[in-house]
Design goal:
Layout (H helix, E strand, L loop, with lengths): L69 E6 L5 H15 L5 E7 L6 H11 L4 E4 L4 H6 L7 E4 L5 E5 L5 E2 L2 E2 L7 H10 L30 H12 L17 H6 L1 H9 L31 H12 L27 E4 L4 E3 L8 E6 L6 E9 L6 E8 L2 H6 L9 H9 L4 E3 L5 E3 L4 E5 L4 E8 L6 E3 L2 E6 L6 E2 L1 E6 L4 E2 L6 E8 L4 E9 L4 E9 L5 E7 L10 E9 L4 E8 L15 E2 L10 E7 L15 E2 L3
Length: 627
């Protein structure tokens, strides 16, 4: 959950922000991974595979191909999100395959539940064999590298294709339809005795550690050191009943998922935190600007990676930390009121789901002040993120009778009002200290902007929001506003296009947090303070923006902006073909509500020290501008 505001929250003005040394162009994002065509001979194509005699839940023998036949070994895992996305595709391919093609689905994750593997087998029925390769014997023999890898063998056990099913799903993106169907094209060529145009690719998925190389020696043990790192940084989500797809609560869990853990830790993708570290003078201790910073410390990261590269010793169980406990259904105190969808939203098994907007009536009979908020998805497995807005009655009346797709300015006017609550996996709650609260007006309506990501199984979602009221009006009202540029225009093929907007500060305001919001072409974002003399300093720099994590960055010490200063929000976009999440690199992209459109929206959470709570303020907005 989001950490509460720092207990040191006060009216005292903080120290001024340091002046920027420069404004570097953001580096290319490393948060996405799409299949890449590889040199076949360096990816196992052409080598003989020595298959084990039997493998699986019942020790069943593997199929024996006759001359002219082929066996497709498709890796999968019941706890890997990308594997699950590809299940419908593999079921369809297996059901439609010629008699000369045999499908074997291989789950190499030791800790995947046997019942889940049996359910996977039921989905394939008679069209494929499903084996639970707990020891990794078959996956290691095949040379598999991820849980979405596919290896095709001929009748002589020679690898003739090693790669991805297609490019529809990858790390950090999803397409409505695949652009390239690697496996289907390879099987078509093999059955026609034609050369393969692509015989090898990598396969984005959960990485496997199946090397026969001797592990590096390490004095670190799981119980003494590593379990504490994982407990502090991972198990809030990666636990039984948590929002993550698999648990990391035990030594066996971490060993089973070691390959993927190593990858995302090395690349800084987990724990999810993308703010650049503030510069500090040499010899000075590390500091943070953020109350809810989630990045691993340098020492924790080094020790975790060293242990993962070693033999992963378990150590003495008596050295284990005390178990971490978690709250029940709600992480906030028991809600005084819960508002939920009137009807469940149906989510398909695959594909891309456009944003859905669901309006929920509160039917409050009077204004209420809220000190804690939590958004709870009905099915966390398909809810990518949620932004909850208060529906402004004046804007609602003004938009009556308009066409369904309203003008950019109409949508931007709503966004300038800011979000009221938000959810991303692991961050669904907002709590405020005594004296601070948000207003929930009489008769308010809540508009849930839902971004769903299908996970391979059709399902339904009925998201809820719980609130805790205060008995007395607060000393300060927490508000949000968006720094918006609805006139963005991103040219076709542009790999590093820059857009910005500035917001003039009419009254002294105290900033609490930032939430940059871009869509799938967004690659970097920055908030800056522009002083009265025109000098600028960086408040938040996100050099690798990731659409999959709509993070809130909460200041450890609130920051006062003075009347006459400005707040600038700048974003960079990648509309090139090198961005695997890009729906169409040939399009000129403008503002719009769907992920194939774009937004330039820098949310800011703040309060006005000298304005009474509940006072009506003008909406305001951003002013477009360059640097």
């Amino acid at each position: 959950m989001l950490l509460p505001l720092a207990l040191a929250l006060s009216l005292a003005a903080p120290s001024p922000c340091p002046q920027d040394a420069g404004t570097p162009v953001p580096a290319a994002a490393e948060t996405k991974w799409a299949p890449r065509v590889l040199k076949p001979s360096e990816h196992g194509v052409g080598r003989r595979v020595a298959l084990p005699r039997s493998v699986g839940l019942s020790g069943a023998a593997l199929p024996v191909a006759k001359p002219g036949e082929f066996t497709v070994y498709a890796l999968s895992s019941t706890t890997c999100p990308l594997s699950q996305k590809y299940v419908p595709t593999l079921v369809e391919l297996a059901a439609g395959a010629e008699a000369r093609v045999h499908f074997v689905i291989v789950d190499p994750i030791a800790t995947d539940a046997a019942e889940s593997v049996r359910e996977l087998a039921q989905r394939f029925g008679e069209h494929a064999s499903v084996v639970h390769d707990r020891e990794g014997t078959l996956a290691r023999a095949l040379g598999a590298t991820t849980t979405t890898d596919v290896i095709v063998l001929d009748a002589a056990s020679t690898t003739v294709f090693h790669g991805a099913v297609d490019d529809q799903y990858g790390v950090g993106y999803a397409l409505e339809n695949p652009r390239r169907r690697f496996l289907a094209d390879a099987l078509r060529a093999l059955l026609s005795d034609e050369p393969l145009l692509v015989a090898a690719t990598d396969a984005p998925g959960c990485e496997l550690e199946l090397s026969d190389a001797a592990p590096v020696a390490s004095e670190l043990t799981y119980h003494d050191r590593i379990s504490r790192i994982v407990q502090a940084n991972c198990v809030e989500c990666h636990r039984t009943g948590g929002v993550a797809p698999f648990s990391l609560e035990t030594h066996a869990d971490l060993v089973a998922h070691a390959g993927m853990v190593r990858r995302v830790v090395e690349k800084g993708q987990m724990p999810p935190w993308f703010a650049a570290e503030p510069a500090r003078a040499e010899g000075q201790p590390p500091t943070t600007r953020w109350a809810n910073e989630r990045a691993l410390s340098a020492a924790d990261k080094a020790d975790l990676l060293a242990w993962l590269a070693s033999g992963k010793p378990e150590g003495n169980p008596s050295h284990a930390p005390l178990p971490r406990s978690f709250a029940g259904e709600w992480s906030i105190p028991a809600p005084d009121a819960v508002f939920e969808f009137a009807q469940p939203e149906s989510i398909p098994a695959s594909g891309v789901v456009p944003y859905r907007n669901v309006v929920v009536e509160t039917r409050l009979e009077e204004d209420r002040w809220v000190r804690a908020i939590e958004v709870r998805p009905g099915d966390a497995g398909v809810v990518h993120h949620v932004l909850v807005h208060l529906v402004d009655s004046e804007l609602e009346r003004a938009n009556e009778g308009r066409r369904r797709r309203r003008a950019d300015d109409d949508i931007a006017a709503e966004e300038r009002l800011g979000f009221w609550a938000a959810y991303v996996p692991g961050q669904g709650a907002l709590s405020y200290p005594q004296g601070f609260a948000k207003l929930l007006p009489k008769g308010a309506k809540l508009r849930f902007q839902m971004h769903y990501t299908p996970n391979g199984t059709a399902t339904e979602d009925r998201t809820r929001i719980g609130v805790v009221f205060t008995d007395e009006p607060p000393l300060h009202e927490v508000r949000t506003i968006g720094v918006v540029n609805p006139r963005i225009r991103i040219p076709p093929g542009a790999a590093n296009h820059e857009e910005s907007a500035t917001f003039p500060i009419p009254l002294d305001a105290v900033l609490l947090s930032f939430v940059p919001h871009l869509h799938v072409r967004g690659k970097a974002a920055r908030y800056e303070r522009i002083a009265r003399d025109g000098t600028s300093s960086t408040l938040l720099d996100v050099p690798r923006y990731d659409f999959n994590w709509q993070l809130l960055y909460r200041l450890a010490e609130p920051l006062t902006l003075r009347s006459g200063e400005q707040l600038r929000f700048t974003a960079w976009y990648d509309n090139s073909a090198e961005n695997p999440a890009n729906p169409d690199p040939t399009a000129t992209v403008r503002w719009g509500p769907q992920t194939f459109d774009e937004m330039h929206l820098g949310y800011v959470e703040y309060y006005l020290p000298w304005v009474p709570p509940g006072a009506k303020l003008p909406v305001g907005g951003g002013r477009r501008g360059g640097r």
